Amino acid sequence: MLNRRHLRVKVLQTLYAYQLSEDKQVTKFEKALLQSVDQVYEMYIWALNLLDEVADYVLVDAEERANKFLPTEKDLSLDTRLHDNTFIVSLRNNEKYKADVKRYKVSWSFDPEIVRKVFQELKSSEAYETYLKQEDRSIAAEKDVIKFIFKKIILTSPAIEQVFEERFINWSVDKEVLQAMVAKTFKNFASENPAQNKLAELTPNWDEDRPFIMELFTQTIRYADEYQQLIGAKTKNWEADRIALLDTLLMRMAICELLNFPTIPVKVTINEYIELSKVYSTAKSNTFINGVLDKILGELQASGRIRKHGRGLIQ
What homologous superfamily does CATH list for 223-313? Predict the structure, then answer.
């Protein structure tokens, strides 16, 4: 699921695009920010649907082998239980899943080879042989082969990687979230009653997370000049064009968060942006950002501008 760090990355990406664009319509980029978050969920539905399609392909494979010119006894007696896998059946009966597949127009028919290749790799695996021999059809037992398909085939397939990269611009960043959401789905689907099995939520609390990212984005833009003055005062020995744009945006976001989000502890904010700089900026950015933010924080605290309450008071 998307945690606060992932959400900060989404804001950072959108701010970066805004900064480089000649079009400064904030509402346009607000919409883009929400779309970038929603695309993570769409990617999740595409992944679940691929599992669904692979399970469905067992019938296609059985029909093709039965219609061979000289089918063998094995061709005529294939076990198609994967089609009725308890986990997959529960997924297919999930109303939200069905609605989301329709909403995002999910279909792997644009490249049937993908589903076929996944199934062929599955069919030649020991995990599939074990699955066909097991008598336990409970959802707990039947999930194992679906986990195998996802972890050992889908996530390791270059062809599937390419499809997701082409369809979702932030695939390399969001892949980790996708894995967490699918893992959560496996955990959630524990009941033999499909109505009790729930899809994973995109964030732990979207009612709080949506206002968080929208305010962080808009306030960082609205007070960009003020925040830049604070940064400039602490970087007088640096020429402005020597400071990486991502470093500047990360520091502006951090200042925005310190001043405008009273329930987020100071230590959390500082640590988060230092960690983000390690991943998304230059090798020495974390040390640079840490030093600048430490000075700015001291100034803001001395002037009484840092006001925290509730969870924000936690040190």
Answer: NusB-like (1.10.940.10)
